[in-house]
Amino acid sequence: MSHTPASIVLDTSVAIKWFFKEPYEKEALLLRDAFRKGLCFLFAPDLIYPEFANTIWKRVNFYNLSPEEGIQIVRTFQRVPLEIVASRNLLEEAFSIAVQYKCAVYDALFLALSNERSCQIITADRRFYEAVSVTFPNMIWIEKFKV
């Protein structure tokens, strides 16, 4: 009997941890490895790319990451074969979530995608998790992720 791979929405806060030694890096790498082995499918709104690049830009400008290292990380992430969904298709639901839970629309896009696909979203964004996880049981804190 074959096992159907889980569908998971990848939050940018988790994807960043694939590239840096920081809290919850180990759990993020477990998710990445499960994806590479075909144990799960990873989805994200198209916003993940500019959000990811902006986080890398901050590390170049405010931390010790060189511009060359930064662009290499961005290029590497762009090659990850995520299933990308257009943000415009999620925008109305994301806006409603953002208004109701007082979170950013760009964060709510990931949750709207999770709702649309009826799948889990894995996050390492503590504030976002605490704001919505009680109402949205598909929101999983990275530390609780199991393959």
If you had to describe this structure to a student in words, what would you say it looks like?
The protein is an alpha/beta fold and 147 residues long. It has one domain (6-84, 120-144): 5'-nuclease (Rossmann fold), CATH 3.40.50. Helices cover 50% and strands 14% of the residues. It has helices at residues 12-15, 25-36, 48-62, 67-78, 91-101, 105-117, 126-132; strands at 6-10, 40-45, 83-85, 120-123, 139-141. Helix 7 links the parallel strand 4 and strand 5. The mean pLDDT is 94.
List the helices and strands and how they pair.
Blueprint: E1 6-10, H1 12-15, H2 25-36, E2 40-45, H3 48-62, H4 67-78, E3 83-85, H5 91-101, H6 105-117, E4 120-123, H7 126-132, E5 139-141
Parallel strand pairs: 1-2, 1-4, 2-3, 4-5
Helix pairs in contact: 3-4, 5-6
**Order of SSEs, N→C?**
EHHEHHEHHEHE
From the coordinates shown, what is the CATH architecture? 3-Layer(aba) Sandwich
Q: What is the helical fraction, as a range of percent?
A: 40-55%
Average pLDDT reading:
94
The CATH topology, please?
A: Rossmann fold
Question: What's the number of domains?
Answer: 1
Q: Count the beta strands.
A: 5
Radius of gyration: 15 Å
Brief sketch in words of this structure:
This protein has 147 residues and is α/β, with parallel strands linked by helices.
